[in-house]
Amino acid sequence: MKIKEVPRTANIAWSPAQQHPIYLAAGTAAQQLDASFSTSASLELFELDLSDASVDLPRKGGVISEQRFHRLVWTWHTNSDMAMGYIVAGADNGSLFLYNPVAILEDRGEEAMVLQVSKHSGPVHALDFNPFQRNLVASGASESEIFIWDLNNTASPMTPGSKTQPFDDVNCVSWNRQVQHILASTVAGKCVVWDLRKSDPIIKVNDSTSRMRARQVVWHPEVATQMCLASEDDHSPSVQLWDLRFATSPIRVLEGHTRGVLAIAPVYPTRAGLPAYGAPKSEAWNDPPAANRTRTRSTPLNTPMEPVMQPVMQPLAGLADAVPDASIHPQPYAPYNPYKPMEYRQPGAVQPTNLQPPPVHIQREEPPKPKERAPLPAEHQALQQVFDNLADRCVQATNNQQTRKKLDDVRKKLDILYDKLADRTLSDNVVLGLHQMIQAIQQYDYQTGLGIHAHMIATGNFSEISPFMPGIKTLLQTCIQMNVYCQM
Question: How far is it, in rounded angstroms, from Cα 21 to Cα 271?
Fold first, then answer.
């Protein structure tokens, strides 16, 4: 249902939640033309008044711009001179513009633009404010450039680390909502997660089993390790939910779009003046209604954590003056040589010319014997037979060394599963899910098997199932790709 509209070809940003009335900022979109082929650009503010039955948003102010915009963000600020916060815009020429919305509303055009900085070498496609330190904003541009700006001192922006190879446009940057020094970015179809304290990427998220090309990334509002990735590929238009604790594959895939997904946004709690449309925040990350299930769990996977409030950047000053710990960095010493002649000898003594080293008797220890696995209970032997049969048939069906290496890793994870089954350390729910998965595999229904796997991941205990569940999923996906079925 359409409530309001603005007839503009523009990129937009909503005013912060603290602001009332609610405003929409619209900046003329770069690399796009309307029907009039106009080349002008502006930043305009529109007021949202839901009591007005008209679908048009009234324009409340605007300012002319020399550049068009790829991205806008609007954040709150406690500075009395910026009572409505400030708007940061990423422009087509690589510049960042900082605007005062109060000056725009009061038609003080010469005072509207507070700051302009030009450091990027190409168009600025991505912007995001740090939710804990509002003076920090991340920007992404072409050539894999990412800068972290302190708006109190824009002379020297920081970088999260070395540029991602191959160089490409940074389409999105997103700060973690619970840990303030964690930043995610998308470039060249992949998602890179950065730890700003280490100035290095800590993980690269990519679904190698599909044509997924990540364009947008959004962190879960409450669960620090979960994120959503949106695919821009028209042949694989999907949204994937990832948990970095299971970073080998997505824990959920949402499909329904017919073209590439260009934007996603989480549903945050409703604010005064805006009624809540749709599900509350916790449900906005669930599957579409047809895939929703009522789930009970003893240990929730989506467990909110307390925000990490340490500084984003910890200075390294003073490390050079620190005294190294001798226990960690021992001083170099000359190795002992038992055959080196003694330095002092009795006068007249004849120095031997051919010293022979004394015989050395080395007692070799027998390597420890591998622990023998206890036999699997009879009711679980079908699990081993089916999984081993699939792994053997996959190995026989391929000569690709990378696939064979992947299957070797699968076997190691299956051995862990068999050990747990033999020791009877798995919970009843996990054992039941494994047997249901086997029944689906024996009926040649891999999709149902993968659905059971996803349900076990979402409802199971992480420490209990994480050593072997990724191996089972890899095995099933390999069977689908190679058209291999269980034959016993």
Answer: 11
